[in-house]
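RECORD TYPE: inverse folding
INPUT: structure tokens
STRUCTURE:
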């Protein structure tokens, strides 16, 4: 007897392939959504860790970490010695990071292209951010301030995808200048301890309560000063980097191309200094965020200290850009669809819609504005 073996016809094969394709098409969005949900949860956990570290710091020093630790330079201008993350390292089990041989206590002392610049802190990296754990920062390389050896090229820094909230004030003011150092009893702020002694005082200041956030230059905030309530006040928000988030110059800017280039909103956790008029050719951001402009504004406003003709006066000018100030601070931004996540002053983390009312958004960023607002999931 003859056996007949029947195989698939071409039509049947095409039908099977089509069915498999449809099933894969149906499953793929679900898989991608599940992965993004996991990334968003990890991002939330990072913010939670940073928020809790701030509270442990407060338990030790009776104040939250200083926004940045200023340093006076030979030109009479006040630069930045260290940022907030540096002060938090002992409270996230990373105190050993600053013990590497190529740094001597402040970020300016770091050797070009060094291990400290590339020391990735996992809780500073949102897995959804397109920039990755190491990202190029042109501002602090050959095209910007010559801190680095020009032969190295644009350096890679361990990423910082979160920003400490300055409220709705985008100035870079301090309330003292170089001459104050020579006054008996003056002590520079260190690791969050309040400064004391003589101060010149802000010009056009101090920063109004309706604008003041938890962190700012040379600013130390105690929990008792957050009269709007810790559960109603932003402490830290997302600050995504990578090519998806190009920078532009100044408040209300719309052009992502600057000097013929696109500069991504990248920064490193160790970088404490924002850009200023000494670096006119490149754009940069910082470890601070501001609610002067909306969440997820694209392109991202750069962080910029416009020093003006009189540096000694301009560096103490506390006016926001809305009130005549010349500076800008980058807006918060997130790779998560529909909004971004914020750690609050009480340590909780909430997702904020990108369509949040601007008065509410700004009110949530200040510590003592007196607004009656609540978070928006």
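DESIGNED SEQUENCE:
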């Amino acid at each position: 007897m003859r056996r007949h073996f029947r195989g698939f016809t071409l039509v049947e094969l095409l039908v099977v392939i089509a069915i498999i394709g449809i099933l894969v098409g149906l499953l793929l969005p679900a898989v991608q959504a599940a992965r993004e949900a996991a990334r968003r949860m990890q991002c939330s956990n990072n913010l939670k860790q940073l928020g809790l570290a701030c509270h442990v710091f407060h338990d030790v020093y009776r104040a939250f970490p200083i926004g940045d630790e200023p340093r006076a330079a030979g030109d009479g201008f006040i630069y930045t010695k260290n940022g907030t993350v540096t002060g938090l390292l002992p409270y996230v089990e990373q105190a050993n990071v600053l013990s590497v041989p190529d740094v001597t206590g402040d970020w300016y002392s770091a050797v070009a292209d060094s291990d400290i610049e590339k020391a990735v802190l996992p809780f500073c990296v949102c897995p959804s951010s397109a920039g990755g754990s190491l990202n190029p920062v042109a501002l602090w390389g050959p095209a910007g301030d010559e801190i680095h050896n020009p032969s190295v090229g644009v350096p890679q820094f361990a990423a910082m995808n979160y920003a400490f909230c300055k409220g709705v004030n985008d100035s870079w003011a301090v309330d003292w200048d170089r001459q104050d150092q020579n006054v008996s009893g003056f002590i520079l702020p260190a690791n969050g301890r309040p400064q004391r002694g003589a101060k010149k005082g802000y010009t056009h200041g101090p920063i109004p309560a309706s604008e003041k956030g938890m962190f700012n230059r040379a600013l130390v905030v105690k929990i008792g000063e957050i009269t709007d309530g810790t559960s109603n006040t932003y402490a830290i928000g997302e600050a995504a980097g990578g090519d998806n988030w190009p920078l532009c110059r100044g408040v209300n800017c719309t052009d992502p191309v600057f000097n013929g280039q696109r500069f991504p909103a990248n920064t490193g956790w160790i970088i404490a200094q924002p850009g200023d008029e000494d670096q006119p050719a490149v754009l940069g951001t910082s470890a601070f965020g501001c609610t002067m402009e909306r969440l997820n504004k694209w392109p991202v406003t750069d962080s910029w200290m416009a020093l003006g003709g009189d540096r000694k006066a301009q560096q103490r000018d506390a006016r926001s850009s809305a009130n005549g100030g010349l500076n800008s601070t980058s807006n918060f931004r997130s790779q998560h669809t529909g909004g971004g996540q914020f750690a609050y002053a009480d340590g909780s983390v909430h997702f904020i819609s990108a369509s949040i009312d601007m008065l509410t958004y700004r009110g949530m960023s200040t510590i003592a504005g007196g607004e009656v607002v609540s978070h928006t999931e």
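NOTES: The radius of gyration is 24 Å.
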